[in-house]
Amino acid sequence: MPTENEPRPAKSEQTRTLILETAMRLFQELGYDKTTMRAIAKEAGVSVGNAYYYFAGKEHLIQGFYDRIAAEHQAAVREVLDRETDLEARLAGVLRAWLDIAAPYHEFAAQFFKNAADPESPLSPFSPESEHAREAAIAVHREVLAGSKAKVPSELADILPELMWLSQMGLVLYWVFDRSPGLERSRRLAERGARLTTRGVALARFRVLRPLVHEVHELFTDFLPGMAQTVTASKRRAE
Amino acid sequence: MPTENEPRPAKSEQTRTLILETAMRLFQELGYDKTTMRAIAKEAGVSVGNAYYYFAGKEHLIQGFYDRIAAEHQAAVREVLDRETDLEARLAGVLRAWLDIAAPYHEFAAQFFKNAADPESPLSPFSPESEHAREAAIAVHREVLAGSKAKVPSELADILPELMWLSQMGLVLYWVFDRSPGLERSRRLAERGARLTTRGVALARFRVLRPLVHEVHELFTDFLPGMAQTVTASKRRAE
């Protein structure tokens, strides 16, 4: 029996988790478009009003799901980040951990893709609404870089983790459409991508290349709607 | 009245064009998924058998459409490629010309996107089925580079046009979701992308960077299904 020092999750947290897990199951079974909040509430055994109390709509359930994947990923990468100091090994480990955690949702991701591909959709990984999950994911890459032996000029220390996360989004896009057994092609791409990124980071110390790195990063923040806010927020935190 | 030296398009070519244009109109009005070959034939005033004689299915109509856009683009870029020798101006002109030609199909592209986003779909720009249109598009970039004053190491002369085309596909992806008036954000991205690519090409002459350029290109040909074939075919032609 839990004592006061070992609190069990509050009832409200349990209900929130129940609704989220029920929604994810129904999204997978019926598809995102055909699943209603009413059906989710009924299946979870809560009132419709109660479901809306925890999640203002289907989109918020997806944000809850993104946050959950991000939290599971942050926990799963501890093992590799506490052990490895080689940048390529750290990055490959982080990408592999993501593929492991996301594997159960692969089929859902393929049919859900059309809802998330539009950068102006709140469900896009680049949207302002996804900022919380995106910030958590970028923080992982910040730690991948900071805890490695790689020498990084200080002017690029804020930029590179965001570019590394962007390349992870490239892997996610590839993974969505991957039909190879055991998603082995995505796993190979993770290894190759980690090697390529590590080479890119090593080259970024050449002074002649830095303007290009800045320009790629600027292009990306200028043209993806939610990104500029994240960059501003991370600057505010740094001050 | 046309003489023997000025042949008018053969009847079969006219019928083919009529079917293609009717299909594109119906795709835009009804959506790709809901438009049947039967409806296209009826609207074009030809028999269903006749429609299938020219296009083996809806997918072939899309390939015909891709080829047509590529041919119109090849004609439209002549003006800028015959006049400019500056790489950035040549590339910006080529990208602007593409946005002009594709503008009437913008709404269709947004709803069609989900059919073309899967790299294993025959309708993907990376598929073996799209090779003809892709080859034509890469040939434009080969000419953009070859006719410019930019100095390019011979070992990269085959690779850079494919990477330039890949960055054009990035612009196309952005354009699909662009809702700015007059698609002005896509136009600005075309300018910025041309500048960035030009800088990248200028840096590619540094020997220290060439392994990275090769590795990016290899990654791209290894992981996109149709690309390896295009690369093999272009090597065969060069021999």
TrEMBL record, chains A, B:
<dbReference type="InterPro" id="IPR009057">
    <property type="entry name" value="Homeodomain-like_sf"/>
</dbReference>
<feature type="DNA-binding region" description="H-T-H motif">
    <location>
        <begin position="36"/>
        <end position="55"/>
    </location>
</feature>
<dbReference type="InterPro" id="IPR001647">
    <property type="entry name" value="HTH_TetR"/>
</dbReference>
<protein>
    <submittedName>
        <fullName>TetR family transcriptional regulator</fullName>
    </submittedName>
</protein>
<dbReference type="GO" id="GO:0000976">
    <property type="term" value="F:transcription cis-regulatory region binding"/>
</dbReference>
<dbReference type="Pfam" id="PF17931">
    <property type="entry name" value="TetR_C_23"/>
</dbReference>
<dbReference type="InterPro" id="IPR036271">
    <property type="entry name" value="Tet_transcr_reg_TetR-rel_C_sf"/>
</dbReference>
<dbReference type="InterPro" id="IPR023772">
    <property type="entry name" value="DNA-bd_HTH_TetR-type_CS"/>
</dbReference>
<dbReference type="Pfam" id="PF00440">
    <property type="entry name" value="TetR_N"/>
</dbReference>
<dbReference type="InterPro" id="IPR050109">
    <property type="entry name" value="HTH-type_TetR-like_transc_reg"/>
</dbReference>
<keyword id="KW-0238">DNA-binding</keyword>
<dbReference type="InterPro" id="IPR041673">
    <property type="entry name" value="TetR_C_23"/>
</dbReference>
<dbReference type="GO" id="GO:0003700">
    <property type="term" value="F:DNA-binding transcription factor activity"/>
</dbReference>
<feature type="domain" description="HTH tetR-type">
    <location>
        <begin position="13"/>
        <end position="73"/>
    </location>
</feature>
